[in-house]
Design a protein that fits this description.
The chain is of the alpha/beta class. It has 13 helices and 15 strands. It has helices at 2-11, 36-52, 69-83, 94-106, 135-148, 162-177, 194-203, 216-228, 244-250, 265-268, 271-282, 291-309, 314-318, and strands at 23-29, 58-64, 87-90, 111-113, 128-130, 153-159, 181-187, 208-212, 235-238, 258-262, 324-326, 329-333, 339-340, 344-350, 353-356. α3 runs parallel beside α4 and α5 crosses α6.
């Protein structure tokens, strides 16, 4: 069904790009590593948006970085030296975006980040823009929830990746402002002795527990161990509980989780956005992680379309300070390249389904 959709889109394309620049775009995403559910969704969204927006003058060169710095660096060199790309987009994990930013900056290749959310990403050298909000907003929202629930102390278990550490540090800074105590332990990527760490945190007698991994599998394992310890404690998280594949695996273990996530799409999508999502599903695609990842990836291709049609580079377009109207309404980019206009909200898992905490 997918190939048929692509064929029809090609045959009946009505927008001509004959007078526009042909662009080679490198796509660096995780297809088989710890962020594979997000990376595969991003890849599908890019391919769908290219056809849906009839971007016939754009070539997507997709590579699997596996959220691994060394692989991402090798891909960056390939994009620059062999493929001669004009732009690179994607980036499932913050660590690979941070690791490769200096390489792209030296070659003056702009980065359009659609998933990696560490606050440090857009602080790197070069022209970096992001269609997904910074985790500074996630940390603030989570800390506000802790304060509203009148928790006096929070235990934090974090992966030592850039994403998890930057989120943790932002969260701790917000907790400190509210004079909320914390105890935190870190573990290296690949470590899986979560029981020892969770027992230590339990002995600290906190009032809430924030599980902060990068890998969805690690999150599920940590959740299983926490439940097995008969530790009746409110569990906090970011993003992971809303993943469709996580909910399918976790089942009743996910009940009662409280977490930060994007504002539900049914609240923010424009009519065009809803129609685009419907076409995505009708084309035979499925969402493995979060549906918001589809929209932020699609919007990146829309921005490329606008820049190309106006014969502008992405930096020229996004540094202009102008406002755009996309699938999720009006938005713009700040001086650091971060998108403005998308918010976060607290949710909980109730009877296996994400529910907004009003």
């Amino acid at each position: 069904m997918i190939w048929r959709y692509f064929l029809l889109s090609f045959l009946f394309a009505t927008v001509s790009f004959a007078d526009q620049q042909y662009l080679k775009i490198g796509v660096s995403v995780d297809l088989t590593g710890p962020g594979k559910q997000w990376g595969n969704d991003m890849r599908d969204a890019f391919q769908f948006a290219k056809e849906d927006l009839k971007l016939n003058q754009i070539e997507l060169i997709i590579e699997n970085d596996q959220c691994d710095n060394s692989k991402a660096v090798s891909i960056a060199k390939k994009f620059i030296e062999i493929d001669k790309v004009d732009l690179v987009l994607g980036f499932t994990c913050s660590n690979v975006a941070i690791a490769t930013a200096p390489i792209y900056a030296r070659s003056k290749i702009p980065m359009l980040v659609t998933c990696a959310s560490s606050p440090e990403v857009t602080k790197q050298p070069g022209d970096i823009f992001r269609t997904t909000p910074s985790d500074q907003l996630v940390a603030k929202k989570l800390a506000e929830y802790v304060w509203q629930q009148k928790f006096h102390s929070v235990a934090i278990l974090s992966n030592q990746s850039d994403y998890a550490q930057d989120l943790k540090e932002s969260f701790l800074a917000n907790l400190e402002k509210s004079k909320i105590n914390s105890v935190n332990l870190d573990y290296n990527p690949g470590d899986n002795d979560f029981r020892t760490l969770l027992v230590k945190l339990k002995h600290a007698i906190p009032e809430a527990l924030f599980l902060n991994p990068i890998d969805q599998g690690d999150f599920l394992q940590q959740l299983k161990i926490t439940r097995s310890l008969h530790w009746n404690i409110p569990i906090l998280a970011a993003y992971h509980p809303g993943s469709k594949t996580f909910l399918e695996e976790a089942k009743e273990l996910a009940e009662g989780l409280s977490y930060v996530d994007f504002t539900p799409l049914d609240r923010i999508l424009t009519t065009d956005g809803k129609q685009a999502m419907n076409r995505f599903y009708q084309a035979g695609f499925q969402v493995r992680g979060l549906d918001s990842v589809i929209i932020t990836a699609y919007e990146a291709l829309r921005l490329i379309q606008i820049a190309n049609s106006e014969k502008l580079t992405i930096p020229d377009l996004l540094k202009s300070g102008r406002k755009f109207t996309g699938n999720f309404g009006e938005y713009s980019f700040d001086a650091e390249g971060d998108i403005q206009g998308i918010g976060f909200i607290m949710k909980t898992i109730s009877k296996g389904v994400p529910k907004v905490l009003e």
